[in-house]
Amino acid sequence: MAETDAALGYEQARDELIEVVRKLEAGGTSLEDSLALWERGEELAKVCRHWLEGARARLDSALAAREAAEGRTAADGEDRGE
To answer: How far apart are CA 44 and CA 6, in angstroms?
Structure first.
């Protein structure tokens, strides 16, 4: 992933990717231009994937922390004879 791509936010990368796909689907571009668009689309997809994987990791971490806290709460209640 290029440094400039790493600075893109998810929404920016997604929107640009949508535009790349629209241009490719519309056709009418030279082979060279189509290949350049495809390569750009691949880079943008990597940026999006990176953001989504990060979001997934954050969600998994938050869920694990919540489950651990709920487990401690239930265990605490059992220790007190509740």
So the answer is: 10
How many helices (H) and strands (E) are present in the chain, helices listed first?
3, 0
Please give the model's pTM, rounded to 2 decimal places: 0.74
Residue 28 has what DSSP assignment? -
Q: How far apart are CA 22 and CA 38, in angstroms?
A: 11
Distance of CA 26 to the CA centre of its chain: 26
Average pLDDT score over the chain: 89
End-to-end CA separation in angstroms for the chain = 54
Nearest to 5 by CA among 50, 36, 37, 35: 50
**Residues 47, 5 contacting (CB under 8 angstroms):** yes
